[in-house]
Amino acid sequence: MIYMERQAKMHRMRLAREPFGMIASGRKTVEVRLFDEKRGRLSVGDTIEFTCTDSGERITVRITDLMRFSSFSELYSSGLLDDCGCGGMTVEEAVSYILRYYTASDEAKYGALAVRFEVVS
User: Fold this and answer.
1) Model-wide pTM > 0.90
2) For the segment 69-102, what is each residue's pLDDT rounded down to a tens digit?
3) Where are the alpha helices (DSSP H) in the chain?
4) E strand segments, the chain
């Protein structure tokens, strides 16, 4: 039997200044997104190039884990608040924050994804 190794892919995502800065400083090691079609293409070992929407700065990370949840509440309740850059927030506050970017109907349709990563450049 022949096994073919999957080629890692590069993905691009935009981030606001604050979460971008938390990644750059090492305070954020998990990105939270909808588990929509685009995020369904992510795999462990792939890289993501995050671009800061304010400055255009870029940072590249390698995906080390993907964790799927039925809702943002379930995701944040799993103990990921600090890793997501939401330290000091309650679960409810973190959910309210993320729903500024997504609709509740999209959350219900797609569910949530926690992308754990390590900075590579």
Assistant:
1) yes
2) 999 999 999 999 999 999 999 999 999 999 999 9
3) 17-25, 72-75, 91-98, 104-110
4) 10-15, 30-34, 47-52, 58-69, 112-119
